Amino acid sequence: MKKSILLMIITSLIFGVIQGYSQEKATYNKIVDNIFVFNHNGTNYTIVTSDEGLLIIDTGYPGAATFADSTIRADFKLPVKYVVNTHYHYDHVGGNHLFAKNGAPIIAHKNTRKRMLIEWNMPEFQGLKYPVFPPYADEYLPDICFSDSLKIYFGNETIDLIHLPPGHSDCDVIVCFKIENIVVTGDVYLGIGFPPIDFTFDGYLASLSLLISMCDKNTVVISGHGPVTNLDELILFRETLTEGASRIKKLKSEGKTIDEIVAAEPLKGLMERSYVPEVVFIYCILNGPINE
Ligand SMILES: [Zn+2]
Q1: The domain spanning residue 16 has which CATH number?
Q2: Does pLDDT of 97 surpass 70?
Q3: 227 CA distance to ligand 1 centroid (A)?
Q4: Cα gap 284→281, rounded to integer Å
């Protein structure tokens, strides 16, 4: 792909304009009576309802958040009471300031806040250049932070936020609904294609394996970006990532250059499509942490 086209796609994705989303009517995937998934511009927003109002898990891209916030408020006709971030990446916190504008606290791992206070700047690789994100303004920042786990009592729900080991980032939390056997994974399970990895691939696998160990065959899995799925898909995802990484490492051990490895398309055919360009995963395997 030409560099300029690739850059255009990345920029468009980041600012939430590429997918031509409908401004008229949103569709929600109803998981149980009070838990819904809204996939908008590629990111999943999980919406939990109660008599108290709404709890929103993840707030999407900066450019998509105005539509998501106003649509969810209009459709559910309830105030937002809590906002939860699964991690600090810009496609999960971009609407924090909107969803929390009436005073709802934003809840996240302590490193989410720490990361949002510093500039995000991914190194350029194979013509792929992400915009630089400056530190976030106060209105975006988590208000309540924790280290290992946190319980939220919301309506009849007991919601467990559990921090996983560093891999995709150092602040990933999964959100567990024990009674309904539902887990919201953030990007520990991306759901579509190969993930970006802030830390190490081994770390990513370790956090994914821990997530898998917490699921059973009836668990409903809500990913960061893909369709609602299950344990079998999590296990398949782990196998596919492992195969992809071993192909990349094999080419490297044969003495291939980075250009040759990218040109060999080692991930071709492994996933139907990739939400994040596959060169990002290749970069992570070859060069290690991108934002440690
Ligand atoms: Zn992410």
Answers
A1: 3.60.15.10
A2: yes
A3: 16
A4: 5
Chain centroid to Cα 185, Å, comes to 8
Separation of CA 255 and ligand 1 centre (Å): 31
Q: For helices 201-213 and 231-253, what crossing angle results, to 10°?
A: 160
**Ion ligand 1: residues, Cβ under 5 Å:** 89, 187
Residue 43 domain boundaries: 3-287
Q: Is 235 exposed, middle or buried (0-12, 13-18, 19+ CB in 10 A)?
A: middle
Residue 276 Cα to ligand 1 middle (Å): 10
Rounded mean pLDDT of 57-66?
94
Domain assignment of residue 71, yes or no:
yes
- Domain membership of residue 276 (yes or no) is yes
Question: From the CB of residue 232, how many other CB atoms can be counted at a distance below 10 Å?
Answer: 11
In a domain, 292, yes or no: no
Ligand 1 centroid from CA 43, angstroms = 10
Burial state string for 39-50 with b = 16 or more CB within 10 A and e = fewer than 16:
bbbbbbbbbbbe
Mean pLDDT, the chain, rounded, equals 90
133 beta partners = 120
Q: What is the pLDDT of residues 228-262, one digit of tens each?
A: 999 999 999 999 999 999 999 999 999 999 999 99
Q: How many domains does the chain have?
A: 1
CA of 187 to the centre of ligand 1 (A): 5
Residue at 248 is within a domain: yes
Taking the centre of ligand 1 as the mean of its atom positions, its distance from the CA of residue 197, in whole angstroms, is 8
pTM higher than 0.85: yes
